[in-house]
Specification:
There is one protein chain. This protein is an alpha/beta fold and 388 residues long. The protein has 2 domains: 238 residues, 3-Layer(aba) Sandwich (Aspartate Aminotransferase, domain 2), CATH 3.40.640.10; 129 residues, Aspartate Aminotransferase, domain 1 (Alpha-Beta Complex), CATH 3.90.1150.10. It has 13 helices and 13 strands. Strands 1-9-8-5-4-2-3 form a 7-stranded mixed β-sheet, sandwiched between helices. It has a 3-stranded antiparallel β-sheet with strand order 7-6-11, with no helix packed on it. The protein has a 3-stranded antiparallel β-sheet with strand order 10-12-13, with no helix packed on it. Helix 9 runs parallel beside helix 13. The two termini are 33 Å apart. It binds pyridoxal-5'-phosphate (PLP). The site of pyridoxal-5'-phosphate has 14 residues, from helix 3 and helix 4.
Length: 388
């Protein structure tokens, strides 16, 4: 693409992060060190949780959260079809069965009423997502999990820094998982973080990420403790000091980054709110969004083919656009698992045909935003003319 392209997303990294990473490289301690602990504390505090366990990715964190809760073959986990595929894949990793529940048309999160209907004696967890950083109804979902005495796992990979009624994203579940992939609010390149108040779960997760070593004895302060004793089947899901240093710098700048993203979202709202071809995101009261991506919906008279053509046209103009998200239960892998008889989830299926993610990151300038909107409006007019 040309140098004046406007990408869909872009990490916000400054000299502060570069200096912190360089300091780690000079220190000689590249894994299992103090940076990991600092990063864990910063994220746990922000999520309103006691413990943070840094891991190699959000996907690894979800896998470990399910393992730590003892979920396995024969168990059902209720989850959303409207997410990135890693949410449901984590359920498959442990041999359990994902049970997809339709979403709410407004919040795009799982519909609490339909969660209740999907609970069976085999339900062992609810795996809920704050879609695009919107915590709407997370309190209701947590209450349903509590009522049925099943744990809520919060896939909060898209929501760092947001809150609902003053309660931070990451604090609704028995365990929560953040991602620091480069398109997320903050990045470590690759990385993730498990958060929880449960000290037993935290210990199991520390052990699981570190080849099943006995968690208590093994820290960077006492690496010889039980280094070669493995008490369970573990993984190498650790985060390096280099990644953690980048994360520490990003956490120090989190509020600046979130404000930048808020500014971009506001401008999109101001400029697009009167356009009858476009349905803007709805933010319910007492909600602080943590804007992950900016996804609008095309009006109901648009088809999926028209939406896809609009995305292709945007890209031809060097402007990033994407169809976040195709339903997970329609992905080829899940079609096969569901024996070509996927559940009918009408809201998800209808909404996902018309969603359109626009370029979104903290440094997008007003000029760039206006260019995105002008281009989109020209393309929409052309689509309108084609129909006549
Ligand atoms: C990004 C994301 C993940 C996966 O995180 P990785 O760090 O890329 O493994 C999982 N769930 C959701 C909802 C995500 O947005």
């Amino acid at each position: 693409m040309a140098s004046d392209e406007i990408p869909l997303s872009r990490p916000d990294v400054t000299e502060l992060e570069i200096e912190l990473v360089a300091a780690v490289l000079r220190s000689g301690r590249l894994a299992l060190g103090p940076m990991q602990e600092r990063f864990e504390q910063l994220v746990a505090d922000r999520a309103g949780c006691e413990y943070g366990i840094a891991v190699s990715s959000g996907t690894a964190g979800l896998h470990m959260a399910l393992l730590a809760l003892g979920i396995g073959p024969g168990d059902e986990v209720i989850t959303t079809p409207f997410s990135f595929i890693a949410t449901a894949n984590a359920i498959l990793y442990v041999g359990a069965t994902p049970v997809f529940v339709d979403i709410d048309r407004v919040s795009l999160n799982m519909d609490p009423h339909k969660i209740e209907q999907a609970v069976t004696p085999r339900t062992k967890a609810i795996l809920a997502v704050e879609a695009f950083g919107n915590p709407a109804q997370m309190d209701t979902i947590a209450a349903i999990a509590g009522k049925h005495e099943i744990p809520l796992i919060e896939d909060c990979c898209e929501g760092l820094g947001g809150s609902l009624k003053g309660r931070p994203i990451g604090s609704f579940g028995r365990v929560g998982v953040f991602s620091f992939y480069p398109n997320k609010q903050i990045t470590t390149g690759e990385g993730g973080m498990i958060v929880t108040d449960d000290d037993r779960l935290a210990d199991i997760c520390r052990s699981l990420r570190n080849q099943g070593r006995g968690a208590k004895d093994v820290s960077w302060r006492n690496p010889t403790g039980a280094w070669l004793e493995h008490v369970r089947l573990g993984y190498n899901y650790r985060m390096s000091e280099i990644h953690a240093a980048l994360g520490v710098g990003q956490m120090r700048r989190l509020d600046v980054i979130l404000e930048g993203r808020e500014r971009v979202a506001r401008r999109y709202f101001e400029r697009l709110i009167g356009n009858s071809d476009i349905i803007m995101p709805t933010i319910s009261p007492y909600t602080r969004m943590s804007w992950f991506v900016f996804v609008v919906r095309l009006a109901s008279d648009f088809t999926a083919q028209e939406r896809d053509r609009i995305i292709a046209d945007m890209r031809r103009h060097d402007i990033g656009a994407a169809n976040y998200f195709p339903p997970i239960h329609h992905q080829p892998l899940y079609r096969e698992l569901l024996c070509d008889a996927p559940p009918h989830l009408p809201v998800c299926e209808s909404v996902s045909q018309r969603t359109l993610a626009l370029p979104f990151h903290s440094q997008l300038t007003d000029r760039e935003i206006d260019l995105v909107i002008q281009t989109l409006e020209v393309i929409l007019r052309r689509e309108g003319l084609r129909r006549m």
